[in-house]
Every structure is written in C-alpha cells, then in structure tokens.
Amino acid sequence: MTDDAMTLTRPTDWTAAAEAIAAKIALAAPLHDADDSFVADAYDLLKAQGFFKAHVPTELGGGGASYAEICSVVRTLARACGSTGLAFAMHTHIVALAVWRRANEGAPTEGLLKRVTAEDLVLVSSGGSDWLQSAGAAEKVEGGFRVTARKIFSSGSPAGDLLSTSAVYDDPESGPTVLHFAASLKAEGVKIHDTWRTLGMRGTGSNDVEFTGVFVPDAAIAGRRPQGKWHPLFHAISMIAFPIIYSAYLGVAEYARGKALEVARKKAPEEALTLLVGEMENAFAAARMAVAEMISTAETATPGPETTNRTMIGRTLAAQSAIRTVEKAMEVAGGAAFYRALGLERAFRDVQAARFHPLQEKPQLRYAGRLALGLHIDG
After folding, report:
1. Cβ-count burial of 118 within 10 angstroms (0-12 exposed, 13-18 middle, 19+ buried)?
2. What single string gives the DSSP state of each residue in 159-172?
3. Which of 44, 84, 240, 332 has the fewest CB atoms within 10 Å distance of its CB?
C-alpha cells in the first residue's frame, strides 16, 4: 500500500471512528471481564484504523488528531469497554507527551514518533507504579546499563512492543539517579508474567514485566533525575497524561449513567427516584467538568508546580465524581444493578481503579496544602 493510500484510509473524525469501534467491542467487554482476558480484539480494530498513531503529527506519518480529540476517543472507547479505554490511554499518554515535548521544548522525540507510525508500535508504561521513586536497579557496564527490575501495572503488555520505564542507578557522584528509557518487550531478559487478576479493569493486560540483566545502551537513556524529587519532566507528565487517563473513567461513569437511565425510565417517577437521578446527574456533571478543566489545562498551560496542582486537584475531583456517579447509578437502577447482565456491577468495579493512579488522594491533598502554604513540594 502506498503512503497516499494509507493517508486516505485514516479517519478524519476520530471520535466518530471510535464510536464505530465502540459498537463492536461493547459485546466482548463482559466476556473479557469474566475470564480476565486481554482486549486483543479491540486492539486489533484500533490498530487496523491507525488509532495507535492517531495523535502523531501528520508530517511524521501520523493521524494528526488533536489532544482534545484523543481524550474524546478514550472516553468513547471506555464507555463501551473500560479496559479498552484505559489500556489505550496508557499507550496514548506516552505518545502525547512525546508530541508535546517535541512541539514545545524541541525535545528529540521525533525518532520515537516516527517509529510509532512506521512500525505500528504499541507503547506500554510503568510510570504509575514507579512515579518519583522508580524501582529496580541499573548497574553501569561498558556502553550502557544492566537493568534488573519488576514493573507492575504494565497495561497493554500482551500487545506491547516497547516499555517506557525507569530504574535507579546509584551514581557515585550524584547519588541515587533515576534513568528513563524505553526497552523492547521482546528483548533478551524481559519476561511478561501473567499476573493480572483484579477487582476491575480486568481486560487491560496490566501484567508484571520482569527485567533480568537487560542491557540498555547509553544512547537509549532519555532522561536522568534525582530519585524521589519533583522534576520538570514530571510536571509535564502530570499535565499531559492524566487528562487522557481520567477520560477513561469519565467514559465508565457515562456508561453507568446511561444504563441507569434506561432502567429508571421504565419505572414510575416517584420522588425518591427523581432525587437519586438528580444526585447522579450532579456527580456526572462534576466529573465531566473536572476532566474538561484538566484537558483545557493541558492545552493551554505551562508545566510547573502550580499547573501540576491544578491537574492533580482535577484528578481527585474526577475520580471522586466518577465513582459517585456509578454508585448513584446503581441506586437508581435498584436491585437490577446487582445482576452482572446489566453491566453496572462491572462499571462499579472498573471505576474503582480511578483511586490508584498518582497522585492518590492523600498525597494530592498534601501537595495542594503545601503549595497553598508556600512550602516546598519536595518537603
């Protein structure tokens, strides 16, 4: 197929294209949930239509989808299948950060973005489980490092090509230093452990990835930072990644709201029911507004402590409101919500994962409080 032909087959309305895929994957969502299987069929559909390179600029061979569009795609997919939406978000936020850094910092991320388009790469992140501390050891050897680590929550790992991750090098001069790099999931010494047996989001394939003496060349080290400290890179990650990730939970909440309204409209409009529906509507509106504010921040702000604060407050409010939306949806539906066939109990389990991404609620409150009091965020 020629480059021109490939360009012509890419969707021009990415949300509409995601709606078409969502209609196909919705039926498989409960099956993946029931047997803890990865959403491979959904990934095949997404790859066939170029979604994994949708956000890459057109001049690099990508689909040129805007940041807001890609958040809409995640929300749309998650409304049909929470696991698909969340797993896709984990690939997409790595791409989005590379796109943002290239455009705004002149960072040398073009090579990665070109590989994503040319090789149809699926990226996997261990960032949430590592965060500021990171995990695993990097030993200096000739020409690079040998990394030994076990990375949890590696969403999309069954279909992944590259793991975007980090490890700690005990630098004799600078002390514990976190090294950031991408490593092939097919490299010697890399093993994916089938460990993903969870309360919800069961189809994300967020398995453990083990590195046993994996060689990472010096040229592959994309960044270095002091362990456990806020760094400009993490302010950029916070600003760009979390609106995409929490768009998935907004999609789950939207699905639950829709299911609850289907049930409620068949009931007599008693006062208690209308009040419950009103509570659900308020909660969903709060989740929608929190995510919209996060997206706006990502599109317009400059990374830094204040921007991270805005984003992380949004992350907490979005999580709280998405969870409350699903809880209220179950109350609106009544006893029918307890049956797995309706799908609300799956949404209830899936949305609980919103609690566990950084910054989790208590660390987020501490961050916001310290910033408001004029204290250093690393204190």
Report:
1. exposed
2. G-SEEEEEEEEEET
3. 44
Sequence-separated contacts (24+) of 326-329 with Cβ below 8 Å: 326/252, 326/253, 326/256, 326/351, 328/260, 328/276, 328/279, 328/280, 328/283, 329/256, 329/257, 329/259, 329/260, 329/280
| Residues linked to residue 106 through DSSP beta bridges, in sequence order | none
State the CB neighbour count (10 A cutoff) for residue 171. 15
Give φ, ψ of 143 to 5 degrees.
85, 0
pLDDT in tens, 254-264: 999 999 999 99
- First CA to last CA distance, the chain: 56
pLDDT in tens, 95-146: 999 999 999 999 999 999 999 999 999 999 997 779 999 999 999 999 999 9
- Identity of the amino acid at 38: F
| Residue type at position 284 | F
From CA 250, how far away is CA 245, in angstroms rounded?
A: 9
